[in-house]
Design brief:
Its EC number is 2.7.7.105. 35% of the residues lie in helices and 15% in strands. The chain has a single domain, classed as Spore Coat Polysaccharide Biosynthesis Protein SpsA, Chain A, CATH 3.90.550.10. The chain has a seven-stranded mixed sheet, with helices on both faces. The chain has eight helices and seven strands; from the N terminus they run βαβαβαβαββαβααα.
Length: 232
């Protein structure tokens, strides 16, 4: 069952939505077998969660998913999870994030809520801390991804503001159009979400976390991947 949400005051609650693994990373299908894509998603999730847990400004992490394997990884990583309500319609990701943000206990006091991508293998906790600090002066803020079109993180710090997620194609423009502010910090690991082979090459060059490095080794991804950054 899902874990209770117990939040230290004034620290952020990170929400990570992960879809059914059978539908994960289809843009890598030309390079990786389905089982390899699944293992890669889980490795990147482990590294994303591990980095977020080192952020001093993070008080809670909750993974939202319909997939029991992802639930097992969340429990293995020592973080909470909620079942994906699998809302009908054309906007399931945003629906589950809205539902999770509205969950009792998700935002006690002035706690910030962060909708974070789960495929950030090069994330550093210090980057997330810096983004949360930069977001304090804005009701809603985003970290635009390395392509300049997507959203790596949506941060809501104002208690009266709703999460109002707009993830999907051109989500950065959609979030900005809804009133969010784009943060301008130099956070390469936070901005580098992985969907394509080029993204994975970029992550391998930047230096992913240990779980992703091991998975790249197993699948024979020839990009010279090495853990070149400290993940503490």
């Amino acid at each position: 069952m899902d874990t209770a949400l117990h939040m230290p005051p004034h620290r952020a609650h990170v929400l990570i939505a992960v879809k059914d693994l059978g539908r994960a990373k289809t843009r890598l299908a030309s390079r990786l077998l389905p089982t390899q894509r699944t293992d890669l998603v889980l490795a990147m999730l482990r590294d994303t969660v591990a980095a977020a847990r080192t952020a001093a400004a993070v008080g809670e992490i909750t993974v939202i998913t319909p997939d029991p394997t992802v639930v097992a990884v969340a429990e293995e990583c020592g973080v909470g999870w909620l079942p994906d309500p699998q809302s009908p319609g054309d906007d399931p990701l945003n629906a589950v994030l809205r539902a999770a943000a509205a969950h009792p206990g998700a935002r006690p006091g002035r706690t910030a809520v962060v909708a974070l991508q789960g495929d950030l293998p090069c994330l550093l906790g210090s980057e997330l801390d810096a983004a949360l600090a930069a977001a304090r002066n804005h009701p809603r803020a985003i970290v635009v991804d390395h392509h300049g079109t997507g959203t790596a993180a949506l941060i809501v710090g104002e208690p009266a503001a709703g999460l109002d997620p707009r993830f999907g194609p051109d989500s950065a423009a959609r979030h900005l159009g809804s009133g969010a502010t784009a943060l301008t910090g130099d956070w390469p690991g936070l901005r580098l979400d992985v969907d394509t082979a080029a993204d994975l090459d970029a992550a391998a060059a930047l230096g992913p976390g240990p779980a992703t490095v091991e998975q790249l080794r197993r699948i024979g991804w020839h990009s010279g991947a090495a853990p070149t950054r400290k993940f503490t």
